[in-house]
Amino acid sequence: MTDRNQQLFDRAAQVIPGGVNSPVRAFRAVGGTPRFVQRAQGAYFWDANGQKYIDYIGSWGPMILGHGHPAVLEAVQKAALDGFSFGAPTEREIELAEEILKHVPSMEMVRLVSSGTEAGMSALRLARGATGRSKIIKFEGCYHGHADALLVKAGSGLATFGNPTSAGVPPEVVQHTLVLEYNNVEQLEEAFKLHGKELACVMIEPIAGNMNFVRASVPFMKRCRELCTEHGALFVFDEVMTGFRVALGSAQSVYAQLIPGFQPDLTVLGKVIGGGMPLAAFGGPREIMRQLAPTGPVYQAGTLSGNPVATACGLATLREIAKPGFWDALSSKTQSLVDGLKGAAAKAGVPFAADCQGGMFGFFLLPELPQNYAKVMTSDSPKFNKLFHGLLDRGVYIAPALYEAGFVSAAHSEADIAATVQAASEVFATL
Ligand code: KE4
Fold it and tell me: What is its main location (predicted)?
């Protein structure tokens, strides 16, 4: 049978670099042919051959309700009839802003933008503008979008600043970016001792979904907060992935239960708040956010910022996930998936560690959960690739890279979870 996925991939590669508009989609890490999605509905999508998959990527997080939720679809269709884009303010941007602020009390104001990268880049500029400082700390294994200053890998040794992870990023652009080891308190202490008063911010993924699933330890998170406060640096939570995905109050509400009174200074959001349409945001206290143009000196702008169709999609999504019982149902479904996979791996004698929070999960073919990037990368990637393809052949679609998280939606049924665990147990037996 002609493989329409391969035909499309070959054709795409003629006109789009790598045949994809975002690198991870090309299956380079796992090999094989990317599945070209024809349509999606609920917890499933169908590829160009008409093959059905249980979808655990959900557009890398946004599709928390599943694909094509009726209330969201209706909101988008209605909004589209009223106009696609105006470049002028609308009431719905206020409604979406108010809905976001209602659930994230650390934010008093929010600016809507069109991608997580744009939100992270803008939050970084705001932190530097608000503090008048240039240096920043990020952590190895955390991804904050592809703004130049954030495409940095750990320099050799602590005191040196990061080196670009990408061609085209001049060294001088990343000379102020210090990359530390995630969950390493002593490195953090040392960095603040050396540079504390020059630091504009510390930027972190509170649960690092770009290392698959690594939680910031409570002592580490506490110390980040204390040192930022002590030295006048802003603590920036990149919740593009975890925001409204791990809890209604995002990851910061999870840490606030573990660390009394905990709050970041700025928060970056994306994915779920757009419900699958291009929409992201960043926000924080009024006195910081007011530094943004047009009320302050930090410039930031966007043609499609607060787009009327995207805000309709995001607002309808947030209203659904705020309904009573949503999070108990989603969390227990995600937990039963993780417990089922652990049981299947144990039965097959495969080293397997997994964790989850709300609708986000991750697993490692390792005996225990890794605490940092170096440990994550000790995973057996050939074995992961075999697992990936074994699941794919059985109609289960997980992230095509061992350092990416997985996502469960409200549309995933217990039967989907059971079918996934059954597929995994068959594949574990072959590893
Ligand atoms: P976008 O520019 O892709 O909307 O957001 C960038 C971003 C920022 N911060 C975090 C924590 C993120 O996870 C992301 C984007 N996540 C990736 C998945 N690891 C998106 C998928 C892709 O790059 O194709």
Answer: cytoplasm
| Residue 44 annotated among the catalytic residues of the structure | no
Determine which residue's CA is closest to atom 14 belonging to ligand 1. Answer: 145
- Over the stretch 34-56, which tens digit does the pLDDT of each residue have? 999 999 999 999 999 999 999 99
**Same structural domain for residues 362 and 383?**
yes
Whether 143 is catalytic is yes
* CA pair distance 151, 243, nearest whole angstrom: 22
Name residues whose C-beta falls within 8 Å of residue 363's C-beta, 6 or more positions apart in sequence: 212, 213, 338, 341, 352, 353, 354, 355, 406
Q: Give the pLDDT mean for 253-278.
A: 98
Between CA 236 and CA 247 the distance in angstroms is 18
**In the predicted structure, residue 167 carries a pLDDT above the cut 70:** yes
Active-site residue, from 143, 182, 373, 403 = 143
Residue finishing a domain among 321, 343, 364 = 321
Domain interval for residue 212: 70-321
Q: Are residues 50 and 195 in the same domain?
A: no
In this predicted structure, what is the pLDDT of residue 379? 93
Count how many residues are written for the chain. 431
Looking up residue 359, the CATH number of its domain turns out to be 3.90.1150.10
Q: What is the pLDDT of residue 153?
A: 82
pLDDT digits (tens, 9 = 90+) for 401-428: 999 999 999 999 999 999 999 999 999 9
Whether 292 and 351 map to the same domain: the answer is no
The residue whose C-alpha atom lies closest to atom 24 belonging to ligand 1 is 22
Question: pTM for this structure?
Answer: 0.98
Q: Looking at the structure, do residues 106 and 233 belong to the same domain, yes or no?
A: yes
Contact yes or no for 424/341 (Cβ under 8 A): yes
Q: Please give the single-letter amino acid code of residue 308.
A: P
Give the CATH number for residue 250.
3.40.640.10
Residue 336 sits in the same domain as residue 308? no
Q: What angle do CA 155, 157, 161 make, to 5 degrees?
A: 40
Count of structural domains within the chain: 2
Both 310 and 360 in one domain: the answer is no
Among the candidates 275, 293, 321, a domain finishes at 321
Q: Are residues 215 and 93 in the same domain?
A: yes
Instruction: List residues near ligand 1 (CB under 6 A).
Output: 22, 24, 60, 115-117, 120, 143-145, 205, 209-210, 238, 240-241, 270, 280, 404
Q: CB neighbours (10 Å) of residue 37? A: 16
Contact between 204 and 120 (Cβ < 8 Å):
no
Task: Give the pLDDT score at 163.
Answer: 82
What CA–CA distance (Å, rounded) separates 334 from 357? Answer: 8
Predicted confidence band of residue 2 (pLDDT cuts 50, 70, 90): confident
Q: What is the pLDDT of residues 212-232, one digit of tens each?
A: 999 999 999 999 999 999 999
Q: Let me know whether 46 and 100 are in one domain.
A: no
